[in-house]
Design goal:
Helices cover 15% and strands 44% of the residues. It contains one helix and four strands, in the order ββββα. It has one helix at 72-84; strands at residues 3-12, 28-38, 47-57, 65-70. It has a four-stranded antiparallel sheet, covered by helices on one side.
């Protein structure tokens, strides 16, 4: 099984919530890692998402971060809510 990871930086303009994370996260740039596995047996390369994780500031330890597993739909919902929030 072949696994690949994609990294991207996503910026939130407002404090936000993501389902599965018990606290409000501050506005700012966040690294998101998406792991995908190759679908075997096809005549072309195709991948399916198997994990989505976000790096967030750690609670209680200044300057530390933690990598949390989140749902890709929950991330998209948080981005949509951020985009529609009043500035």
């Amino acid at each position: 099984m072949t696994i690949r990871s994609r990294r991207e930086t996503i910026t939130f303009k407002h404090p936000f919530h993501i389902r599965g994370v018990e606290r409000e996260l501050p506005a700012g740039a966040y690294e998101v890692v998406t792991d995908e596995e190759m679908i075997e047996g096809l005549s072309f390369a195709s991948y399916r998402r198997v994990a989505t994780m976000i790096t967030v500031p750690s609670e209680g330890v200044r300057g530390a971060t933690e990598l949390l597993s989140i749902g890709s739909v929950d991330l998209a919902d948080a981005q949509a809510a951020d985009a529609s929030a009043a500035t």
